[in-house]
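Re-running the complex after MR caught last week's input typo. The corrected sequence lines follow. Everything else is unchanged.
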Amino acid sequence: MLNSKIAGLGHHVPEKIVTNDYLSTIIDTNNEWIIERTGIQERRFIDPEKDTVANMAAKACRMALERADLEAREIDFIVFATITSDYYFPGSGVLLQRELGLENIPAMDIKNACSGFIYALSTADQFIKTGMYKNVLVVGAEIQSTALDLTTRGRNTAVIFGDGAGAAVLQPTEGPGILSTHLHSDGKFAEELFVKDPGSSRPHEERQPEQILDTSGFKVHMNGNLVFKHAVVRFMEVINEALQANNIEKEEIDLLVPHQANLRISNYIQQKLGLPDEKVYNNIMKYGNTTAGSIPIAMSEAWEEGKIKENDLVCLAAFGSGFTWASALIRW
Ligand code: UT7
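Corrected-run output:
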């Protein structure tokens, strides 16, 4: 059976840097609290005049295509992970297809929040393994900034999230490539980290825009403590599951790229796995939590910095809204 490999990685983040000190001028928060609790020093927010989820994704894809030495017209499938699609529907996959000047090829959106990129990677991997598609774009992109409650009421989420996009080109390989992916969810906790509106859960009169009196449903609601407690457990479980499935010891990991949710979560996993600093890649300091964008942006930067080399064993892991959690082991 064929395996799939990542043939190229790319990313794009908006130019506008938003510092903790800036947020402290509009919200009752401060640089010390944010750094101590999250590790975040700054994040990027889009310029609504020029950045969209689809066009940031297109920039990330063009970089990934160039690095894979591939033309956009050779792509035969798009899997797009986002919870902040440009429109409520259709998804951003078709908009990316249009941005790249492609026609007719299938484009699929995946809405699994912070685990979205690994879900998308796993989906693409299955299609390549069966021989159905050969050159697949796997994308994670988000614009969180325009939905944030940038007041003191929303401070537990306002300081965390950022915008950005990352992409990978997947291709078949005779070599090992993606060794396995592991996906999980537990809908019991759906409302512990969610945005309610514009969902279909409301009755007719409440879904009519002119009738909406309570607009708080459009903001991110997060039970931070609970999410944190589940995250540290599930991250470890799903990484161990990937190692066991492949009969690999944790010491053999060359680079762990965790979803960038909180530096304390990454540090906890690193310590539990006993990995040295150079084997764990974090960039949450610069970008905050970019949800589905975080893993491909981090992988792309790690690759640029020479931290992912041929034959390396790379482990991806994520946890987030749903709850959903996932991991992937890749022999580069
Ligand atoms: O990517 C999806 C997955 N998401 C996550 O994994 C996020 C997981 N959760 C977290 O990262 C953390 O829970 C947070 C960073 C969101 C919050 O950190 P925490 O250490 O859990 O803080 P807390 O919510 O327990 O709040 C502690 C205190 C509270 O004040 P009191 O009640 O002790 O007086 C909060 O009101 O910190 C206060 N607080 C803030 N203070 C300054 C909450 N947000 C802020 C803020 N600035 N931005």
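None of the earlier attempt is carried over here. The radius of gyration is 19 Å. The chain has two domains: 3-176, 179-331.
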